[in-house]
Amino acid sequence: MPRVLLIEDDPSIREGVGLGLRRRGHEVSAAETGEAGLGLMATFHPELVLLDLMLPGINGVQVCRRIRETSQVPIIMLTARGDDFDIVVGLEAGADDYIVKPARTEVIEARIKAVLRRLSEPAGGRHEVEFHGELAIDRSGLTVAKNGERVPLAPSEIKLLMHLSASPEQVFSRQQLLEYVWDHSYHADARLVDACVRRLRHKIEAPDTAPRYVQTVRGFGYRFGPL
């Protein structure tokens, strides 16, 4: 089972979530502040981070940005109800998903499995390296390069790009992308998709130009290409 770093300042939530995940076989290391969590990143080497947004000192958004400077480890935010602005900012900072507190351990476990599944499943059933203009997409290796240099992508960004590029010019609705990329079969928050698209564009598109790869089809959703 994957190692989980839990960064949460509420002791009851920290102890309850930690205990529940340990009972399911996870190795869990917990921190009550952002500073402590960042310190554990280097020594614990987590395979997934559960990150509370409202932390004392360095808040969760700042922690997320700091992690993304050096690591693409999956990050799931823990947020209270009504923190809509913070959710958007957290997603923009690089989080892969979010869970509204309080949440049952089985819900958290299901989201962990969904996020990690994106790293282990080749997209589109293809195994060759595909070239799309400046992009080289390796579906079996789950890697992307631009002009020969590897592009660091978070799990949700990889899965989104793989899915869109597998069917160039096909338009996918936000709900379709939520179901495929995030495994959210219910009518979930489209902000997950929009924030992921913005992060992906920042990494693969040329600055200050119209999107070349991930294009918006107004009123419908997104598509890949044409080039």
Describe, in plain words, how this protein is organized in 3D.
The protein is of the alpha/beta class and 227 residues long. Helix content is 41%, strand content 21%. Strands 2-1-3-4-5 form a 5-stranded parallel sheet, with helices on both faces. It has a 4-stranded antiparallel sheet with strand order 6-7-8-9, with no helix packed on it. The chain has a 3-stranded antiparallel sheet with strand order 10-12-11. Strand 8 (143-146) and strand 9 form a beta hairpin.
- Enumerate the strands of the largest sheet in spatial order, edge to edge or round the barrel: 2-1-3-4-5
Helix content: 40-55%
Question: Measured on Cα atoms, how large is the radius of gyration?
Answer: 17 Å
Main sheet characteristics: 5 strands, parallel
Rounded to the nearest angstrom, the distance between the terminal CA atoms is 41 Å
